[in-house]
Design a protein that fits this description.
It is built from two helices and nine strands; from the N terminus they run H-E-E-E-E-E-E-E-E-H-E. It has 198 residues and is an alpha+beta fold. It folds into two domains: 106 residues, no CATH class; 55 residues, no CATH class. Strands 1-6-7-5 form a four-stranded mixed beta sheet. A hairpin with a 2-residue loop joins strand 3 and strand 4. The radius of gyration is 25 Å and the shape is elongated.
Length: 198
């Protein structure tokens, strides 16, 4: 009878110790994930403020340009402009989905194709009536004109080639006035007023 009692007591003790270990492991893992997420959100906040600060400075001057090098953290799924002057970062990770919004003093044209984590170079340039924030450094990038004959399209230049109804320009022209293909493109979502996920 004593051997059975010792075995039962040992099993209860081991089970209790295992339960405490599992709870502690879960707590530490969760805390580490929360800290990582807080670091990523702080990095997004820093990036947003730096872009807006530079945008506001350049908007006050005429024909000026600046380059920002920044490290995009994990969790940023999209960056887009809303209401012409609000830069919005869409952050989603685990159970958290947030939109961080940064307001500029000037209208912004934003064009960036890839949101993979890592080093990014943004060219911020004051243009006539707006400031472009772009990851391309060509004379025809981020200029509100779809340069179709130079290879721009809704996939590589959604800020220039997408229209408000989510179609894409199929000619060289300002996206407000271009002849479009009348098709809904998922690449246009949240560019130039397109609010439909095709």
């Amino acid at each position: 009878m004593k051997k059975g009692q010792y075995s039962t007591e040992a099993l209860i003790t081991v089970s209790f110790a295992l339960a405490i270990f599992m709870a502690a492991f879960f707590f530490i893992t969760r805390e580490t994930q929360d800290q990582q997420q807080n670091l990523e959100l702080a990095q997004v906040d820093k990036i947003g403020k730096a872009v807006i600060k530079t945008t506001n400075q350049l908007a006050k001057s005429s024909s000026s340009k600046s380059t920002l090098e920044l490290t995009l953290p994990q969790g940023v799924n999209n960056i887009f402009v809303e209401n012409n002057n609000s830069l919005v970062f869409n952050y989603s990770k685990d159970r958290t989905e947030l939109e961080l919004v940064f307001f500029a003093d000037a209208d912004i044209v934003f064009d960036m194709n890839e949101f993979f984590p890592g080093l990014k170079t943004l060219i911020i340039e004051s243009k006539q009536g707006y400031v472009s924030v772009c990851d391309k450094d060509t004379d025809h990038a981020c200029n509100k004109v779809c340069d179709f004959t130079r290879g721009e399209n809704q996939e590589n230049a959604p800020g220039d080639c997408c229209t408000s109804d989510c179609s894409a320009c199929n000619e060289d022209n300002n996206y407000l006035f271009c002849t479009n293909d009348s098709a809904c493109h998922s690449e246009c979502y949240r560019h130039n007023g397109c609010s439909v996920m095709c």
